[in-house]
Amino acid sequence: MSTENAxxxxxxxxxxxxxxxxVPYDSLGYVVCPVCGYAATPAPERSSSAERSPSxxx
Length: 58
Ligand SMILES: [Zn+2]
Hints:
By secondary structure, this protein is low in regular secondary structure. The protein has one domain. It is built from no helices and two strands. Bound molecules: zinc ion. The site of zinc ion has 8 residues, from loops. It comes from Halorubrum ruber. This is Small CPxCG-related zinc finger protein.
């Protein structure tokens, strides 16, 4: 029995679920998680943490 009546935003970061109509959107029109602030952008611009040397520091 599927009773999904509306689009729901599921945050991959904090795993929260909320109706798409009740979540905020950024200036680009992408949904933003109201809990952790995760933006559901298809292609994130920043790649600072994408490539890190495991022995860069520490
Ligand atoms: Zn979230």
